[in-house]
Write a structure and sequence with these properties.
The complex is a heterodimer of chains A (226) and B (166). Chain A contains ten helices and three strands. Chain A is mainly alpha-helical and 226 residues long. In chain A, strand 1 and strand 2 form a beta hairpin. Chain B has 166 residues and is an alpha+beta fold. The longest helix of chain B has 16 residues. Chain B is globular and about 45 Å long. Chain B starts with a strand and ends with a helix. Classes of the chains: A mainly alpha (226), B alpha+beta (166).
Amino acid sequence: MIKEANSIFIRSDLFKSTNREQDKENDFFKISSNTSENILRKKESTKVLNKFRKFQNFSSYSDTDKNESDNDKTSIKIGEEFYEIEKKYFLSLIENDIFEYGYSTNAEKYLQSKLIEEPLKTKEWFNTLFNENFQSSDFMIKILHIMGGIDYELLDPQGTTMAVSATRNRDEEVKESAIRVFENWGSPQALSVLKGIECHEEWLQEYLTDVIVDLEKEQDNHDLLS
Amino acid sequence: MTYLVRKISKSKWPKGKFQDFDIKDLRADAITSCLRTTSDTLSTWEIESLELLDEAVLALVANFERIDTIDVAVLKTTTVTESGFTIKNETGNTPAEHIKEWHKNVVDLKFNSIGEFSKLIINCLEEKQVYRYNATKVKKILVDALNEGKINKSRLKDGFYEKIIS
């Protein structure tokens, strides 16, 4: 969800308005959340507005909320749609970002902020995205680039599992990207994961060996100090 | 003998059998990612000798936002000029003030010349003149530079200093 001052932009098509067939244009419309009368640009937005009003009242969505009433089911559905919007926004950032080692992307900054704000749900949709796109080497390299720039504690435990699975990917470039993630994280599990990787290309095996040596030195230094 | 240093991503380039490699099979990503031009120009850092390679790497990494492993290709300046490329001086944009004047641009690049430059990179790979600086080494270069006063932390990108010292 893109926030601008006191207003929120929502993609109307994601709420599946029944007039959607006539609406060829996917449009953002502006809802002012601080006024009693919401400002709308499209007539069919009334249904969406009602859904949004329900969502605004649903102030603390939690995946531990198990109340089975109809209102709560509706609110949970709206909550799920809300996180679907976040996921789609994240995807749009990935599409437009330039990925270069040494530089952060907008997608990375966005994900980091969501992981701090809403860790449980963010890890859930991020994990889903990862699994859905595991076969796409290009997408995996970008996702791993993002993960390498975020503290592993924010992504743990799903992040570790995701990066481990990427080390088993057939594509050597994806494997390299996964090694980079563990190198950047330097997490306690990193060493044991890296030692279990097999690389067929000589340059990659050399890199892996260097990373293992560095992490072992770091661990030795840490043990000496503690 | 002087050298031009350029950051590349080794994973996007051929890994072996360089003699048999047909340039037409080079991945588009190798060119668009590693040889991205601005105003038909490629940015490089010139060093007087290979002993100064770490300084060229410092010029590159001091502009970073996060610490990552990087690869650098090292080309002999004479090889580049003898291949028909034009090199021009332009003060570099780097927090490492003492090496700003080492920056060089390879200019007037076109469709054919980018392909020719790619061949030079492939030659570097064949001659093992592409060096990988892993994250630990990159961090050490930055920490040493800060301690020696070669870079001022106020010139680093937001949040980068905290990542270097963590």
